[in-house]
Amino acid sequence: MSLPAGLQCYPVPPTVEEYRQLRVLAGLSPKSLEAAARGLPNTVFGVSIRDGEQLVAMGRLIGDGGCFLQVVDIAVVPDRQGQGLGKAVMTALDAWLRTNAAGAYVSLIADGQAHRLYAQFGYTQTAPKSVGMAKVVG
User: Is residue 17 part of a domain?
Assistant: First the structure.
């Protein structure tokens, strides 16, 4: 997938500070420095889209790398939304999955209307057969 002029997609997750900043800018829940520093090194595969040095979009795969994976942290800075960056992130993640994770069960939680993006990559709602559940440890 082609990106707008001047942007590059790199097959690495962002730095801890960039990750924390982009989550907040994109309207995702904030993560502590400690949690991000512990979690990011466990990324199975991640992508960062940059405008020069500036992170403008990201996404990660987490899990055991073979049987089960989860798509997380799909985020785009607000002034770049609607330019296909989320789709570019998903394209990169999907390419990695097709090459490295045949037969794996890949899940995600779709917030708001994001299910429309994920459906383009073959993700379907699991209900009523199964229902996603979540918990925030506090």
Answer: yes
